[in-house]
UniProtKB/TrEMBL annotation:
Cofactor: Mg(2+)
EC number: 2.7.4.6
SUPFAM superfamilies referenced in this protein's UniProt entry, alphabetically: Nucleoside diphosphate kinase, NDK
PROSITE patterns on file: NDPK_LIKE
Transmembrane segments: none
Main location: cytoplasm
Name of encoding gene: ndk
Catalyses which reaction(s): a 2'-deoxyribonucleoside 5'-diphosphate + ATP = a 2'-deoxyribonucleoside 5'-triphosphate + ADP; a ribonucleoside 5'-diphosphate + ATP = a ribonucleoside 5'-triphosphate + ADP
UniProt-recorded name of the protein: Nucleoside diphosphate kinase
High-level lineage: Bacteria, Pseudomonadati, Planctomycetota, Phycisphaerae, Phycisphaerales
Species in which this protein is naturally found: Natronomicrosphaera hydrolytica
Amino acid sequence: VETTLIILKPDAVQRQLMGRIIARFEDKGLQVVGAKLMRITEDLAGKHYAEHEGKPFYAGLVKFMTSNPVLVLAIRGDEAIEVCRRLLGKTNGIEADPGTIRGDFGLSKGYNLVHGSDSAKSAKRELELFFTKDEIHTYEQTVGAWITE
Ligand code: GTP
Ligand code: MG
């Protein structure tokens, strides 16, 4: 079982897609174990996207991510990191397959609605950036027995 960091970006919040995007993860059988509406500071955006510093889209990305509130989620389940990346779809909404979140809701590379950690290492690092330990919950779902063999 893994836990991953998902961010519903400012465009998802503005477009009132939060409920429908959360439903994608819940429908899949994943569990929401942390959730918080927050404003990302420039400092936090810089830490989160440190790997992209120096790239041509970096300044715009930080501006976008700090421009409006975001909803950060901790999502848990079997292979949650890989499963969530597949639910998101390709970075660019134009290339993302129908059936994925980006493929169904977006037409843009920059405004692509959601972030998902891309590896176990990133998930650990990013969860620690956005959540304190007591903001991530452990609770048993009886339905879980019907999702995980
Ligand atoms: P994240 O889950 O947000 O990390 O997306 P990703 O892993 O699919 O893509 P990547 O880490 O390469 O890029 C991070 C974010 O920067 C993307 O989600 C986009 O919002 C933005 N981005 C990446 N490449 C471009 C680009 O070429 N142009 C613009 N405008 N934005 C980009
Ligand atoms: Mg990325």
